[in-house]
Amino acid sequence: MGEAALAALISLADPSLLVMLLAGVLAGLLMGLIPGLGGTGAVAVLLPVTFGMEAPQALALLIGALAVVHTSDTVAAVLLGAPGSASASVTMLDGYAMARRGQAARALSLAFLSSMAGGILGAVGLTIAIPLARPLVLSFGSPELFMLTVLGVALAAVLSRGNVAKGLVAGLLGLLLGMVGTSPTTAEYRFTFGSLFLGDGLSLVAVALGVFGLAEIASRVGQRGTGPERTVRLGGGWLAGVREWLRYWSHVLRGSLIGIWAGVLPGIGATAGTWLAYGQAVATAKDRRKFGKGDPRGIVGPESANNSVEAGDLIPTLLFGIPGGVPAAMLLGMLLTYGVQPGPAIVTDHLDLMYLIVWSFAIASVLGALLCFLGTRWLARITEVPFAVLGPGLVVVMLLGAFQESGQLGDLWVMLALGVLGWLLKGTGFPRAPFLIGFVLAIPLERYYFLTDQVYDGLDWVGRPWVLVFLAVLALPGVTAAARAVRARRSGAGDAASGAAALQEEAPLADSPWSLLTGVGALAVFGAAFAAAGSYSADAQLVPRLVCAAGALAAAWLVFQELARFRRRRRDGAGSPPPPLVSPPAADAAAEEVPAEDAPTPAGEPEPEREMVPVGAGASAGVAVAGRTFAWIAAFLVLVALGGYVAALLLFVPAFLLYVARVRTRTVVLYTLTAAVVVGGLPSLLPVHLPVGLLPG
């Protein structure tokens, strides 16, 4: 193993690998500044660029981005009080309070160093996991690998924040979508409806960018600027932050370990990992009154956790083939396209690639922190751009990326349709991570099942020791969730109301008829797919029908819950108090950890007024904005089909900026020309192909 690790380090001396690693770091830093994209957006946008590359170069590019995306998302959280990602909202509590006292540089120094340390310690954790888990991985056969795929989807669904039924429905929908195309056992076409385009299945890039990228744009494009009154100056204190960071080294270590643990568990992710780190910092502090007012411990712990989460996520992804989160799921898909099978095969045949990932993660963490120290003044300017202005450029990049895998315009329409689905899932409170994890694991799950069925008679394989362990692990979250539901029912509706309020900003349609309609729609999809699968051979229909049956049960359970909630609202509507007021989720979450008298208000400054809105207010406006956004994207695709990509860009971008973002004409002209030059010049710099229209050029 030592030889493989040394060989991987020496390979990084290759200029092509270093260039790809640096390019990934730069892309990750920029993506981290854009709200809602984070590691998912960074990997999804860069994944098409890797087509045609060798596996080491592709891994260096993607790992470079993944390692630093949580380093730069702190900039907006500290300087604007508007976090670049959900996980950065934890840092905002103390970081923004510190910045308002003129200590933004000190807060950013603490954050950058903690992110770097978290990345390095996460890489160390991944290194230690390789020799420890190798004997275990090599002892696994097809029954254990099948159970691991089931476990990956189930845990991602059950452990995701929110309703367990919604998590299960999302995960099973992803599994069903992943079975579109050719059956891995009988080579039959399934759910293609006679379309040759669907015969090869759906593109991972199109699915990921649709469900997460376009959905995020539709959700946020109505947001305007944060307002000049919220911005703060950097000031001094860089060295003071370095000294303070050294003082709190124990919080760095604890936060990193919590992050690694959160990454190993499917569905937990960086957001939950950072809140866990913040919670332990508060719980172990002797003086808790400073938290939320600019306490450095409230920055060090969470920032150490959010980078180590991504490294921890790679442990189950590489060693067992079970992605813990969305970026890891896409990375797993990329490895499979290169013929690299995670699990026993990667440990025996591609150990050099594993250590290349470890070294790349550690080096990228250092580079990311260094570049953030050097470029914060320039990075901060990007955070002040309204999302409506960023929207058209992001749409152009994402659609172009989805086109690269197959070179078919059909992928772009699939991406648009899944964008609508992703927006609906997000708005109604369905977790999207189980959906993508299920999509990626659909074919491995089916393949491992039939391998097991061929080797063993009946259910003899269920008695294998590790299979029994995995079954117990699979049952544990269900028992825990049931116990939590019983406790919540006994504690009364107050806790439920506060939980609904905390999620209202993130899922504004969760407590509306839209949620019920989504559940009914999912039930109809599972029922129709179950019926359609009846025309396939016995082997080709077995797993899809099992998935549909489980999905129908979960969807029926969800519909029952929604109907009961709807009847309860109607019954209590006449005498109920006004709907609760909701503030941004970060503020609500902070209230759980910090007493009310310790609100993050610097001494001598008045408490800033938060915009409070009734639950459900603005939901209809959000639906209208999302509908118009998807209509704009559909019009862009029609223009692409007619006149080609650059010509469509020259019409779509200025129209969107003028009528949606309401940008000045001069800015529109510069923005459009820059986008056209960059996109038009890409084919001469990278292996990128532009869609060609039907009309003669």
Automatic annotation (TrEMBL):
Transmembrane region(s): 6-30, 42-69, 75-96, 108-130, 136-160, 193-215, 318-341, 353-373, 385-403, 409-426, 433-451, 463-483, 514-536, 542-560, 615-636, 642-661, 668-690
Positions of the DUF112 domain: 18-436
Residue span of region Disordered: 571-612
Keywords carried by this UniProt record: Membrane, Transmembrane, Transmembrane helix
InterPro entries the record matches: DUF112_TM (IPR002823)
Protein name as annotated: Tripartite tricarboxylate transporter permease
Taxonomic source organism: Marinactinospora rubrisoli
